[in-house]
Fold this protein.
Amino acid sequence: MQLKIEESAFATTDLSRTSTLTQTSNDRFDKRIAFQLYNRQKECREKLHNSFTHFFSSGYQKLVLKLLEENAGVDLPNFPSFSIIERLYRAEQNKFRKPFFAEETSYKYQIIHKLTDIIIRAIDESEDQCSNDIKKMLQIEERVFTLNHYYMDTVNKIKKKYQEYNDSIELNRNAKVSPRFTINDFVIDVSGLSNEHQAALDVQIAMSAYCRVVEKRIVDQVSQLCYYWFITRCALVLDSKLSSAFTSATLFEWMREPFNQQQKRENLKKSINAMERALAMGQNA
């Protein structure tokens, strides 16, 4: 099932766009590993958030109505069908992979820029482990399930707001009331709600609340996995190994100038001093 994603257009000034691009460019060249990893996590969160369908759009409502019509005679027409919600969620769940695997990440190459082959192997192993854990997590997310109170809180909040909207219409029948109302960032259009539309709205509310729960759950888990594999199990371990691999005396020996080069420099200094003295004597003669 292919669902259309509706994206909002935000107008920005040239000045703000230029400053944003400059800051983004500076961030990309920042050498701090944890900072670069955090930036990738933010990008991942934004891509995941933007991948979800606008659940309260008219197009999505038509899709839900079509599924309810296909399901007629199987379930009650005015009761949200779990099979419909599960089917709609599958379409959203299939979008999860792209923010994590579609584009080549850059923090790996920033970590290994001037390091040895053993560090490269350690990072590759961490990348494989992290990738495997994320794949397992996405497979787990195929099941529609949550114990998070945020889901029912959000559903109840939207329904309560909708009831308050209906009550305001009843109290102000002669007044013109907008067919849309907003809860946080949810914009809901309730114009011309029939029994079928009411059932579709219930499904839309459930899908919106559940996908928000999944979004929060996945973003936290991916951030934790990346930090665990790339920082705790890779960068910090390598730092410890490199620090204990040799003593300060060994490091000083490696960094000390070679004896032959030191002798050449001393002889060169003596030659320069002799020439300067000869020049001074010639100028004073």
Summary: The mean pLDDT is 77.
